[in-house]
Amino acid sequence: MKRREFIQKTAATSALVGLTGVSLSSFTTLNTKHLTILHTNDVHSYIDPFPPNHPKNPNGGGVARRAALINAIRKENSNVLLLDAGDIFQGTPYFNYYGGELEFKLMSMMKYDLATIGNHDFDNGIDGLFAQLPNANFDFVSANYDFKNTVLDGKVKPYKLFNKNGIKVGVFGLGVELDGLVDKKNYKETIYNNPVEVSQDMARILKHNYKCDLVICLSHIGYQYKNEPDKICDLKLATLTKDIDLIIGGHTHTFLNKPTVLDNNIGEKVIVNQVGCYGLNLGRIDFYFDENNSISSKAKSIVV
């Protein structure tokens, strides 16, 4: 299967947990490598599950159940990347009291590999975010925020490379425009750069310079803005760029029953996914690489 056919199986096999029923033998051979991408977004300090009498999400979510799910999946396949698309902070008294310490420590216990930065992660100011970084045993990426004149200079990289059982994965981060959304005093001299231009550079570097088999954009720019059709979002980003295989999104709290699959600007397939908010869902996308590192995939959104 060539890259032009990449992800064509995804739309046919994507479903909510328990609904796929697709045999793994459809995807695997003796030489197939299997990589599982798990992801969250906009958890907003929701540590505890929703109460049983909640009108919309009774008993939903909670870090303990998410951790149990992640551990169970890692027992199925040890070749896992666990990612978060931002807005880790703000939403419950845990953040008001601990300032993000608890969120980062719990994510570290769950062995998150990487996160990007959402607008609410500046709610205690850039200094507040910086102060909590020692509690995170994982890295942060943001390619379009220039932190060179701030305390985050050198602490947040544009991208990170992973080698997962011989599969080269490059992940870069994107953040939403902060002007008008976050008080200037909270992000100080952080410079916002155009996500499309930055993404083109990042994807080229990761795909062609580093020869990554899979390029992932960890995005906090939003899935879609129906009332603002010209505003950059994940759907636009997918169609305006090339060399990105997967966009994991955040910011708009969009619950997708299955990922959206779009053509990029040269007609190749891109997966776009987002799993809502508050830790209610865990995204899972399984990639299968043959001996030539050609790709097939399937995806599901797991209710926590």
Report the sheet with the most strands, covering strand number, pairing sense and barrel closure.
7 strands, mixed
Radius of gyration: 18 Å
Strand content: 15-25%
Portion of residues within helices:
10-25%
Low-confidence segments, ≥5 residues, pLDDT <50?
1-28
Strand runs, count:
15
> Pairing-aware structural class of the strands and helices?
alpha/beta
Oligomer: single chain
Topology order in helix (H) and strand (E) letters: HEEHEHHEHEEEEHEHEHEEEEE
Q: What is the CA-CA span between the terminal residues?
A: 33 Å
Shape by Cα distribution:
globular
Note the total helix count: 8
How would you describe this protein?
With about 300 residues, the protein is α/β, with parallel strands linked by helices. The longest helix has 15 residues. The protein is globular and about 50 Å long. The chain starts with 7 loop residues before the first helix and ends with a strand.
Brief descriptors of the model:
alpha/beta; seven-stranded mixed β-sheet; single chain; six-stranded mixed β-sheet; 304 residues; 23% helix; 8 helices; disordered N terminus
